[in-house]
Amino acid sequence: MARCSVCGKPAVYVNRAAGLALCQRHFLEYFDRKVRRTIRKYKLFRPREHIVVAVSGGKDSMALLHYLHNLAKRVPGWRVTALLVDEGIRGYREYTVKRLVDYAEEHGIEYHIARFKDYVGYTLDEIVRRGRELGLPYLPCTYCGVLRRYIMNRAAREIGATVIATGHNLDDIVQTFLMNILGNDWAKIVRLGPISGPASHPRFVRKVKPFYEVLEKETTLYAVIHGLYTGFEECPYAQMSIRWTVRRMINELEERSPGVKYSLLRSLETAINMLRRQGIGEPDEEEGLYSCALCGEPAAHPICRACQLRLQLGIMEVSPEKLESLPPEARRMAESALRLSEERSRRR
Ligand SMILES: [Zn+2]
Ligand SMILES: [Zn+2]
């Protein structure tokens, strides 16, 4: 059995790439050092912050809530609130909502739940069904990703957040990096840094990733140690996604040559720097270039992605007068989305 490199007690954590083995106590110290170093290095937080932790109920975001709640006790200007977006996936979401509510009440943490149903009128299950009926070319994760981000930003702003912290770990980030390379989507790669978003748009709440340099196996162990991991994790739609395959592939590579994940993260940073220098996909030019002509939220186009999807699904009402009053480019986008929806409905 491996022994702790610091004190010689039985190790609970082994990192082959770093030649490191740690007992529980020294793992927790190592974890804390790593996250604090990330926060300092990338200047993720300011002296006064209302931090909204985006909680999915999964182990990573629960670990982040636990971590930041405890860290904030030592920082006088910080306040931490949990925010969960409930997309209404039956047989999955009920459990994670309960996990958050139980945990928050036990630790006296403020929390909010923002429901798809309240913000867009439909649950994700209903939206996925409708998209299938209409034959729209999207995977469930597209609807979920776009609408979740949209609702997260709106709800966080309504709560008064100055920053949103998400539980993305190193594994998540390098998976997305690889997926974007596969899709030749370099503008998205620029946004994979530890701080993201069009900070200059008045309605945008900036997003930070305190677990940017932390491996998934580390956030998992941290969650297990603090009793935040109950094993019920995977979204039922996850296995339909490309991410599933990419994740398995990277894990196999890491198994064969330890350190590949870190190396991918460094490649990502190099890519971000090179892209920035060329002015490709600067955050301010991307998502915050427009205010959506229909809902007013920050958008990369005259009509935001969330409104485009809602129009295509036929779940958003736009009166002829409203349509008439839109600027030309926005009007064209809205009309083509509405037309698509109508054509598909007629074909059924
Ligand atoms: Zn030790
Ligand atoms: Zn919109």
TrEMBL record:
Residues 3-28 form the 2-thiouridine synthetase TtuA-like N-terminal LIM domain. Signal peptide: none annotated. It comes from Pyrodictium abyssi. Residues 324-348 are annotated as: Disordered. Gene3D superfamilies: HUPs (3.40.50.620). Residues 50-130 form the tRNA(Ile)-lysidine/2-thiocytidine synthase N-terminal domain. This is TIGR00269 family protein. Keywords: Transferase.
